Amino acid sequence: MEGVTAVPSPRSEPAGPSRTGRTSLAAALLSGALGAAVALLATRQEWSEGTATVAGGAFPLTAKGSDVTGVPAALAVVGLAALVAVFAVRRAGRLAVSAVLALSGAGTVAAALLGASDSTALDEKAAQASGDASATVGALSHTAWPYVAAVGGLLLLVAGLLALRYGRLWPAMSGRYERGGAPRPRRTAAPADPDRPEELWKALDRGEDPTGA
């Protein structure tokens, strides 16, 4: 009678979650880093332009994103920090940081879209240029950069949602940087040399049997 082996065939179930974790991790890192970079870059560009009426005629005015609102840039930095912090925490802490990442993205989108039609920054510049506190900007127009900042915020939001959904599958910071509760292995001293009395006394002080029995 032929023998029947009882060795089970290898199971491949863990490959699915592992592959999903790696894919979602790569997507979140790319989306978050790119989103923060895009949002920060967009806030340094010209968002709006117009003219102010002065004695010599029309005076051209421009406003950068940072002049209009500082919220997108600030939230982009917060989102980037949260993206890095995701790997330093676990369980509930990871969920909290992932939520901060997602909210940073949503806030960046909202602030950028609100700034796309804002004229406050140019009105203030018009008042300064004309010397009239009630002066407002004329021929107001906006560029596409506020919407680029909103796209950056959307990418941050996607990274946050990926972290909320798949963050439990992602690796955490290496345990060698953490203080574990297990005691460190004790070094074993070399056997005492019978020909050297000082080593015999040291072995006795350590509570060891110098005879090696």
Supply the key terms:
single chain, 213 residues, mainly alpha, Trp_biosyn_TM_oprn/chp, transmembrane helix, transmembrane
- Biggest pleated sheet: 3 strands, antiparallel
Helix content estimate: 40-55%
Average pLDDT reading? 80
The proportion of residues in beta strands is: 5-15%
Radius of gyration: 32 Å
Write the H/E string, N to C. Answer: HEEHHHHEHH
Total DSSP E strands: 3
Parts with pLDDT < 50 across at least 5 consecutive residues: 6-10, 175-181
C-alpha termini separation: 53 Å
The total of helices stands at: 7
3D shape: elongated
Strand order across the largest sheet: 2-1-3
Q: Which secondary-structure class do the elements indicate?
A: mainly alpha
Description:
With 213 residues, the chain is mainly alpha-helical. The protein is 54% helix and 10% strand. The chain is built from 7 helices and 3 strands. The protein has helices at 15-43, 65-68, 71-85, 91-115, 120-130, 145-166, 197-205, and strands spanning 46-54, 57-64, 138-142. Strands 2-1-3 form a 3-stranded antiparallel sheet. A hairpin with a 2-residue loop joins strand 1 and strand 2 (57-64). The model is unreliable at 6-10 and 175-181 (pLDDT under 50).
Short structural summary:
This protein has helices spanning 15-43, 65-68, 71-85, 91-115, 120-130, 145-166, 197-205, and strands spanning 46-54, 57-64, 138-142. The protein has 213 residues and is mostly helical. A three-stranded antiparallel sheet has the order 2-1-3.
